[in-house]
Every structure is written in C-alpha cells, then in structure tokens.
C-alpha cells in the first residue's frame, strides 16, 4: 500500500512517514511545502512531493495519483490567524478529499480535532473557535463522500515519547496523547479495514494501539 501523507513535515506527519517506511508492505509519499524539506524523507526511503495546500486542486490531484490511501495530518499551526486556518484546515482538507475522489483513491484518513461538534464550536474560546469550525466542516465534507474514510480525534498533543498504549472510543475523557502514538493509531487504522466509516477519539491509555483500534 502506498500512502500519501499530507502535512508530512509536521510532527505527527514525520512520525507517520517513518512508521510507514518501517512497515513491510507499506510505502510513504510525503507531501511537503518546500524543496529543502525533501532530503529528510529521501533518507527514510520515502518519496517526497512538493505541493502547497494553498495551490490549485489540480496540483493536489496530481500528487494523489498512484497512491492507495491519503492521510491528512496538515495544519496551519498555532501561530497563524483565522485566515490561514480556513485556507489550510478547511479548504486544504476539502481539496485533498476532492483530489482523492478525482484520482480514484478510496481510502482516506483524517486527523481532526478532539471535539468538532457544533457545541464545541460554540463553547471554544474566540481564539480557538475558527479552528474547531474549520475541522467541523472538513469532517462533515468527508462524511458526505463515498470514500472509505476514518476520522481520528486526538486529545491534547504532546512531544513525549510514545508509549504504544492508548484509549480509543467514540467518546473518551479529555486527556493528552503523544504525537508518536497518534501516528501509530493512524498506521493501525490503515491496516485494519474495520475502521472504515468510523470516527473515534484517542488519548493516552492502557491498551496497545493495535488492540485499541481493533476493538473499536
């Protein structure tokens, strides 16, 4: 299986590309914004492709051709304004969803926010509500397609070393989770067809990633 990782140069993306490259039968295609980022992924044996999420849908579609699955891990980041949030976390996500459809790629995994319900938008602080709204509508766009989708809602992300153990369910108590463990959950989701059509929250827990995802 060849997997296009959108947002590969992000922290979750880097973990995921490495895990894919370390897994027999999987190959990563790393979608990045800048040519100078390519060497890191080439050293892992992954295939880098330079595409800006603010570019045209055709550019993203071209990057999507020849893969078996798309994982959206991109984000505008905490230091940008609502304008970039809309362009990356919403429009960028929608463009990759449409690119997958155009390229005939059925499998799509979305990394969302922990809670993207309408209530979460209303309750979020003003500085955070645009991000929650962007994720809400990107998730909804994906649900309305006929893609084989999975939507993962991680808790508060940390840079701690992964434990390999999580809690995963439709609803879990808020908590933290290392970015490395999020990447492991993405990988497990790609490997298990039972996650198709499902969405779930994940935080640090006591069950192995493989078993937690399998038991959903």
From TrEMBL:
The gene is yhfK. Residues 7-192 form the NAD(P)-binding domain. It comes from the Bacteria. Pfam families: NAD_binding_10. This is Sugar epimerase YhfK.
């Amino acid at each position: 299986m060849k997997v296009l990782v959108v947002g590969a140069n992000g922290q979750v993306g880097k973990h995921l590309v490495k895990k894919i490259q370390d897994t027999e039968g999987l190959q990563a295609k790393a979608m990045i914004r800048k040519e100078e980022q390519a060497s890191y992924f080439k050293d892992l044996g992954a295939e880098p492709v330079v595409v800006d999420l603010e570019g045209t849908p055709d550019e993203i579609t071209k990057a999507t051709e020849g893969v078996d699955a798309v994982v959206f891990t991109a984000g505008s980041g905490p230091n940008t304004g609502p304008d970039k949030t809309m362009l990356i976390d919403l429009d960028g996500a929608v463009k990759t969803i449409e690119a997958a459809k155009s390229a005939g790629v059925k499998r799509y995994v979305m990394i969302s926010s922990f809670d993207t319900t309408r209530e979460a938008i209303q309750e979020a602080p003003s500085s955070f509500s645009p991000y929650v709204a962007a994720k809400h509508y990107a998730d909804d766009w994906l649900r309305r397609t006929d893609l084989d989708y999975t939507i993962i809602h991680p808790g508060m992300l940390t840079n701690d070393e992964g434990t390999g153990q999580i809690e995963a369910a439709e609803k879990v108590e808020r908590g933290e989770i290392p970015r490395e463990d999020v990447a492991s959950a993405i990988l497990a989701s790609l490997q298990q067809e039972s996650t198709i059509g499902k969405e779930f929250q994940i935080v640090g827990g006591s069950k192995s990633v493989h078993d937690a995802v399998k038991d959903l």
